[in-house]
Amino acid sequence: MKYVYLLLLLVATGVRAQVRGTVTDMDGAPIAGAHLLWMNTTLGTVTDGNGRFSLDKPANAQQLVVGFTGYESDTLQVTDRNATLEVVLREGLELSEVQVINRKLGTMKLRNSVMNEDMISSSELSRAACCNLGESFATNPSVDVNYSDAATGAKQIRLLGLPGTYVQMLTENIPNYRGAAAPYGLGYVPGPWMQSIQISKGASSVKNGYEALTGQINVEFKKPQIADIVSANLFTASTGRFEANADASAQLSPRWTTLLLTHYENETKQHDANNDGFADLPRVEQYNIWNRWAYMGDNYVFQAGIKTTVEERNSGQVAHGRGMAADPYMIHMETDRFEFFTKNAYIFNKEKITNMALILSGTLHSQEAEYGRKQYGVEQKNIYASLLFETDFSPLHSLSTGLNFSYDGYDQHYASQTPKSLSFTKESVAGAYAQYTLNAADKFILMAGIRGDHSSAYGLFVTPRIHAKYTPSEYAHFRLSAGKGYRTSHVLVENNYLLASNREVKIPEPLKQEEAWNYGAGIATYIPLAGRTLNLNVEYYYTDFQSQTVVDLDTDPHAVSFRNLEGKSYSGALQVEASYPFFEGFSLTAAYRYTDVKTTYGGQLREKPLTGKYKGMLTASYQTPLGIWQFDATLQMNGGGRMPEPDSNNPQWQPRYRSFEQLSAQVTRYFRHGSIYIGGENLTGFKQKNPIISAHDPFGTDFDTTMIWGPMHGAKFYVGVRYDLPRN
Q1: Which residue has the higher pLDDT, 418 or 235?
Q2: pTM of structure
């Protein structure tokens, strides 16, 4: 028996059986002196000056209580004795309970938030390769990520069955990746830079603007004050992709810290697995660097950062046995993007959380693209400012109010066989909001907000939103929401990848501001079962458009028309999700979503093309008792849908596409200061046949890259290594 113990000790070298992690606020500031206590025991600890903690886990303890003066206490369900936790305490009424589900690094669910919110932690991101933001939703049933066309590699997310343009993208609660960044912005956020992702469905808070028609996705990055001293991630895939990420932080003084984040990626090979003469994946080379600073005073907090992204993207026809075509169809894009931000906050009263903050940000995005014989370029300038004030009048009442300003300027040029003149467009929007929250001892929470904005293009408009949450017991949470959203369409800027096809682009009339109501209802239950907790969620969201820019691929199979909605357009999304930890270290999550999305095309209400009717997902995760090995697998079942109307005289595709499955898996070996991981994507090997229409004649009228509904490449394998040198 002693040899067994010796073997286990050798295998576990460098791994200490302790629960450890950090406690921070929503801005990423560490909370020093936070108390942690295992429920029904006397074993606990407090966080150090950097918000870090570590403590042993008793065999019979599974609930960890975290609290600090001025914040509500949270209760964490922890079953893994080697868990690493990222506890985020929220001030005031949006505090949320966190559940950690049987993994080394855990998945956090926001239970007590009045809005329907999920948090994808860095632990969940590590369950897959997660090279960038677009690949970070691989294990999330709510968000889909699809290719927008089969040539450029542009991707878009879908939430509640609708494109990502209706989702407000935020980085640390600042609107970002809008306009020119929309087609490729998911690739501008390296996965190892992210600390967490918050997904809010339906009508969101009015604080961040009016643009969230179906929800918000907010990305929180690593913060200088809590980041590891050094962190690195190296990755390579069977497609010839190489990626390197590294960041380093420095404590310059007791209050000043800085963090430098770097990223490089290169897709070195061209692949044409279906032998259609076109690359299945573009060759992308990207440099990304970001320097950010933080000052953490007793009452004054300051953050600032500057970031630059340089990317070159190449695709198009590739050489085969007979060599390259005499006049090849090539796609070439160069992008330069610069961003800066600064946050200033002053806390007047910590007990009542009375504070005022000023947020400033700016972006310069420049892109030059060639699509065969077409040339397109855009330069976007954006400025954003937000001044906000928040206070709790009492435990029952709180108020948030503020002013916002944003400016977008687009300078475009376009040249083809029929040159088009594109005028400079700009829009300035100034607005004000107020949001009131009533919290009756967490049993009933009501959050009502309204904002008014004046656009230089569309005049004055008003955005009301309301959320209600009722908790009759700790086992059930009921939510209702309703609210309005608006957005401005910049169709060629946001959809310039369409120029890769030979469809004629038609914008026959001035486009109206898009406007929609969103209604949502949900039930979340937490059922004790066999000594563990079964989590069951059912939710339904309905988006009803009053005004919409319709992307019409049906009326003319050789053109894409952007026109104002004439008739009805809506989206209904029903989702059921259940998760259960069957035994120590193993958890299983199952989800199913049905979507009904219809829009009026040519006077007829029809199913929206290239939109799957359903999605099923099954994810399994197992971690060995000592926390050394972790195994993750995800199976997706993607439903079929309608294709755009083909040419009746010469049909190039079928009227509908079929359902398909995809399987991904990863194995991770943890060490004291890092891990090694190996995995595969699309292990079922499913590929869409002939994703490019008339690929043999790329300059002909039938050439079309937009008929994409499935993966273009088969199974992909990858291997990577992570290294972390934490603070003390």
Answers
A1: 235
A2: 0.86
